[in-house]
From TrEMBL, chain A:
Taxonomic classification: Bacteria, Bacillati, Bacillota, Bacillota incertae sedis, Caldicellulosiruptorales
Record Pfam families: BPD_transp_1
Spans traversing the lipid bilayer: 12-33, 76-97, 109-130, 156-178, 215-236, 262-284
Keyword entries, A-Z: Cell membrane, Membrane, Transmembrane, Transmembrane helix, Transport
Membrane topology term: Multi-pass membrane protein
Organism: Anaerocellum danielii
Record's signal peptide: none
Record bears the keyword Transmembrane helix: yes
Keyword Transmembrane helix: yes
Domain of life assignment: Bacteria
Entry protein name: Sugar ABC transporter permease
PANTHER family: ABC TRANSPORTER PERMEASE PROTEIN (PTHR30193), INNER MEMBRANE ABC TRANSPORTER PERMEASE PROTEIN YCJO (PTHR30193:SF37)
Family: Belongs to the binding-protein-dependent transport system permease family.
ABC transmembrane type-1 domain ranges (all copies): 72-285
TrEMBL record, chain B:
Major subcellular site: membrane
Protein name: Carbohydrate ABC transporter permease
Family, per entry: Belongs to the binding-protein-dependent transport system permease family.
Domain annotation ABC transmembrane type-1: ranges: 73-262
Bilayer-crossing regions: 12-33, 72-96, 108-132, 144-162, 183-205, 240-262
Coiled-coil regions listed: none
Translocase as UniProt keyword: no
CDD domains: TM_PBP2
Recorded topology in the membrane: Multi-pass membrane protein
The keyword Transmembrane helix is assigned to this record: yes
Matches recorded under InterPro entries: MetI-like, MetI-like_sf
Keywords on record: Cell membrane, Membrane, Transmembrane, Transmembrane helix, Transport
Amino acid sequence: MRNRTKAQEYLTAFVMLLPYILSFCVFFAYPLVKAFIISFQNFSFLGDAPPNFVGLANYKEALTNKMFLDSILNTLYYSVLVVPTQLIIALILAVVVNDKVKFKEFFRTTYYLPTVTSPVAVSIIFLFLYKTDGLVNQILSHIGITPRNWFNEPSFVMPAIVTVAVWGSVGFYMVTFLSGLSTIPDQLYEAAEVEGAGEFIKLVKITVPLLKPMIFFNTVVSFISTLQMFDLSYIIGGSDGGPMGKAMTMVVMIYRTAFKEFNMGVASAMAFVVFGIIFLLTLIQRKLFGEEMSY
Amino acid sequence: MQKKENTYGIGVKIVLYTICILWALITLVPYLIAVITSLKPVEDVTKFSVDFGKLSFSSYKYITTEFPFMRWLFNSFVVAVAVTVGNLLFNSMAAYALARLNFPFKKVVFYIIIGTMMIPGQVLLIPIYLILNKLGWIDSYKGLIIPWLVSAFYIFFMRQYFLTIPKDLEEAALIDGLSRFGIFFKIFLPLSLPALATQAIFIFVGNWNSFMWPSIIASSEELYTLPVGLNSFYGQYYQFWNQVLAGAILLSLPTIIVFVAFQKYFVRGIVTTGLKE
């Protein structure tokens, strides 16, 4: 009897896990192994020849491809601009709307809207706003800045995309900061007030230090997501990476190599290089912020 | 609370409200300009001023009747709804097994689920494409839907939620002769409505906005989802900004409506998934 119920429980568990197991095998485990194998193969989707083993040739080709190396630098440049900018703005907004301002629900809702808006729609709206004769330039020309097509100039395209990315995702990080703020006990602030601390002192001495784990968590999440940026760069810059390839990111490069040039082997090698970069940078971040914050 | 409000000096208040209003403007003005421009005739799109007499819905009418926008909208709905329903059922089932049942290798399965979340998706993109190609699922609803029916992250999320449901409830039901599946459908799912709502909204919005995968899988125009369709429309008709922006509004509206209607779940979802239980 006991054995029967045990067997029954195993069977139930198996049936309930079956969709996950199938999906894991077909869309995760097998592809992961396959991707690794393809990265060592001469695998052109268009060619008739069967794939053959080429050793590290794909990795060599990837790492000597100027466009791919540039895409790594472009992506890092993008990350370094986006991560601090969006976290600082998100933190300021969270502190402000966490306070006793009127209509804070309205402000919170508003700030979150870009986060649920399709990156395609967001890109298109900003393509319109940043046009040479667009509204941003019309406003800027009043303060003496020459109108330019922000997305069409090599030195401006990435910073311009950064503004779009920050606009699009600040709301998400604001909400995570809000959840962190809600865990800080009020008594701490009250005690500081008794001591005569002003708003700024409370912010620097209480809020920021106590939010440190949340800041770390958001930095990692934000950093990983910027390293995987695809949509904005692809929609704004196309598969050529915009003016002089300055908007080309690592993932757009993988996409281009795999699905425009159908060079699956090299694209897979690039994907593993990107994986390695993300892994390495996450480890470094972990070391920098200290081990005790193991979120 | 009353006391605290009084302690704010006027200077602090000015700073707080300036920041609030400034960012609200930065957020809302682009939408506002997009909506107004989508209502303008094409010759007025770059004019700063608005001639209210000339505003009309004609670009919306034009793109939805002369171009397959309605078809793309329909595709987006079918795919996003199917993916959402699949995730709600399959993730909860797996989560129930992990939270409440005993079976061999339970720990291993759990760690695999956690581990899969750490692999960046781009690594899997190419082989999944090749598998779907072999199955003949490229350019089909199957290819757009089936790879996304299960999510490791939300299995984890639902498991955490199920762990908070009291065991007594379940034992009573077992003694009453309810099967495990009965318990799952009649007790656990109804008790988990807030968690299910959170998951549903995130999965729906995420899938609705997804761009890379549909642009790889949907190669014929009839199978485009709205983001893919709009991007290709923009590529050809970029000078018709009133129509392009009408398309962008059409694409944004459903997720904005879902968000505003269910925002309490959104915030709770981020709070509970961002923090440990």
